[in-house]
Amino acid sequence: MANDETPAASPRLHYIYDPLCGWCYAAAPLIHAAAGIGGLAVELHAGGLLAGAQRRAITPQWRDYVLPHDRRIGELTGQPFGAAYADGLLRNVGYVLDSEPPISAVLAAGVLAGDANRAGLVMLERLQRAHYVEGRHIADPAVLAGLAAELGHAAAFGEVYRQMSGAITQAHIAASRRLLQQVGGHGFPTVALSIAGEPPQRIDIGRYLGRTEAWRAQLIAWLGSAPPDGAAAAPFCAPDGGGC
């Protein structure tokens, strides 16, 4: 994975995501592949899909809404969805989906490891698996602490998580939303590539869903030149929770 100490003028892939965004889960193999390209830094920007006033309690209607998207994601990418998620978590009527706690966990993992993006991505991938495969409640601090312990962050995670929660996480979300607007993104995931210190340009990740090797090859090619100007429409989760 890319080192967070990569010089500022080096290529940077800005990934605007949310832990509870199904299309971000679809894109997870592509982001993982990008993080393995030498000299390319992957920067994480959490957008708060279901944060604050957008938090959402599970209802039968919500389950009926998201399952067709999940099926499409599985068909396109091969990403797994577990029975504990589809027939467990999504039937837990009244459970509140909240993006802020898992975002705080991603930030805390980065602080503890000293490399925010590398460790943050590892935590994000673990959170996505816990949610979509294991059907776990990733807004629950106790669940987050258990996942952090799996990743070797047990000792100080609780304290750092509390520090990252609230104002710091909310400021991070606000900055991510500003970046989303800056690059012309419409939802999550949005990916933008910055080369040689130039402003990030949005690129189309949707056409590469399920095509990880083609995506990796294209990224390497862009690093030798420049990304295309703009991007085509791709599946995404809208900032108000639509499309997920």
Strand order, sheet with most strands: 2-1-5-6
Q: Name the CATH superfamily classification.
A: Glutaredoxin
Which sheet architecture does the biggest sheet show? 4 strands, mixed
CATH domain fold name: Glutaredoxin
Helix content: 40-55%
Oligomeric composition of the shown chains: single chain
**CATH domain class:** Alpha Beta
What's a quick, concise take on this entry?
The chain has 244 residues and is an alpha+beta fold.
Tell me what the structure shows:
This protein has nine helices and six strands. By secondary structure, the protein is an alpha+beta fold. It has a single domain, classed as Glutaredoxin (3-Layer(aba) Sandwich). The chain has a four-stranded mixed sheet. Strands 3-4 form a two-stranded antiparallel ribbon. Strand 5 (190-194) and strand 6 form a beta hairpin. Helix 1 (22-35) packs antiparallel against helix 5. The longest helix has 18 residues, at 60-77. The chain is globular and about 50 Å long. The relative contact order is 0.20. The mean pLDDT is 91.
Key phrases:
two-stranded antiparallel ribbon, Glutaredoxin, single chain, 244 residues, globular, alpha+beta, 4-stranded mixed beta sheet
Q: Topology, please?
A:
Elements: E1 12-17, H1 22-35, E2 41-46, E3 56-57, H2 60-77, H3 83-86, E4 96-97, H4 100-113, H5 116-132, H6 141-150, H7 157-164, H8 167-182, E5 190-194, E6 201-203, H9 212-223
Parallel strand pairs: 1-2
Antiparallel strand pairs: 1-5, 3-4, 5-6
Helix pairs in contact: 1-2, 1-5, 1-9, 4-5, 4-6, 4-7
